[in-house]
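Hey L., structure's done. Input below.
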Amino acid sequence: MDTGTKKEVPAEKRSFSNLPPEILSSIADRLPMIELLGFRGTCNDFRSASSTASAAIESLRTPWLLFHKTDSSECLIYNGEESKTYNRNIPDLKGAVCLASYHGWLLVYKDESIFFFCPFSLAKIVLPDFPHKQIDGHVAAFSDVPTSDHCIVSVINLIDEASVEVNVISKGQTAWTPHMIPTRNSLNSSISAATFDEKSRNFYYMDDGKSMLSFSVKDKKWKSYTIVKGAEVNKDTESMPYCYNKHVFRNRIEDTRDRFNLEDDEYVAVCGLSYESAEDCHRHVYLNEVVDDSPSKKRVRRAVWIQPRFFEAHPNQLRCDYCYYLLSGSLV
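Output:
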């Protein structure tokens, strides 16, 4: 008998895997790093739909810290904003030295090879052979992401008490070009940071916060500066093109070092980074630092600040021609 009521037919459930690619891509573009990695690991369709996703939202957040060892490929990644740690096996960072960090890419030296490396995607772009086999004391910066046609890299090192050398490489060149500075100018200690200013097209290098040296990509000229503060500033004082932060690890992280599985005989050598702050739209630079290098600490644990971004390199970018200036004087 018809009672006049209709039986409701359940709506057909639609699997996420059957969503149109454009919707999947839109979802992927909004995901932070850990969620993006999980999304990409779901299935081939999800991976394909997220091919251009880079966890861009992470650029609005505090940089992460990546610890790597000289004798193991086990790495620890620390998200300080959420107080979370992640473990991941990254063979390319075993025994490596990070020279620079910018926009999710690292410039890495290992086994006499120098390359760009994204530790979240494991993308690697190999550069021409570097002219130096000993890399200690070198500090670097690059002007743009390595997949850009406008990327220039600069590495600086103090040759001795009197001189500095720089090697530079850009897209389209196959060898490093050295530039010597006969005097260290204002640099009066080991170099702690390097960065690039797009507006002036200058690389900047500074020591422990007292002195700075600039190198013009355009005319290959050098200029030295003394960094002044407070009452020393006058109407003729030039403004620095970036803000810098000293002792970031020591001030923010040192009290929580127990969670990083540091051994009793290990000190920490930290590679700084350059990044654009979403808060003030200025470039910020974290200086390199060495923490707790007391006589009882015999082994080094290396770390590098990094913005957690996901980038892949196309097959034709796995080895690139660049031209650089070298200044010497288990994620889940």
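Residues 21-29 form the longest helix (9 residues). DSSP finds four helices and 22 strands in the chain.

-- N.
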